[in-house]
Amino acid sequence: MSHAPANAPLPLEEFQQQYERAVPPLPWEQVDALAARDAPWSEMTDLIASTAPFGFLIYWKNQAHNVMRLACDTAKGPFTS
Q1: Greater confidence, 68 or 51?
Q2: Sign of CA dihedral 47, 53, 57, 63
Q3: 44-75 burial code (b ≥16 CB/10 A, e <16)
């Protein structure tokens, strides 16, 4: 298995931790409440704008590191091919 090269100045785990500190998760409870009352789309965009200071949210997260390790994936450390 090969990886597309992506250079980052940090090891993978540290890069991921910094990204996750800067990017908040989608506020599902608030999203569900808006959906339950058929809120206008403008309320959803207002919620997202107020929640995502950098314009990014984590909508879903997959903890695949241990599974990929079992497949002999060695992509720990800096992002390199």
Answers
A1: 51
A2: negative
A3: eeebeeeeeeeeeeeeeeeeeeeeeeeeeeee
The Cα 70–Cα 81 span in angstroms is: 18
- CA neighbor of 15 nearest in space, from 76, 64, 66: 76
The amino acid that residue 50 corresponds to is S
Q: Alpha-carbon torsion 63, 65, 67, 71, what sign?
A: positive
Question: 3-state class of 70 per DSSP?
Answer: helix
Residue type (1 letter), 42: S
Sign of CA dihedral 59, 11, 4, 7: positive
Q: Which two tokens stand for residue 24?
A: 């908040």
Query: Is the predicted pLDDT of residue 38 greater than 90, yes or no?
Result: yes
- What residues have CB less than 8 Å from 20, skipping those under 6 apart? 58
Q: Where are the domains of the chain?
A: 24-70
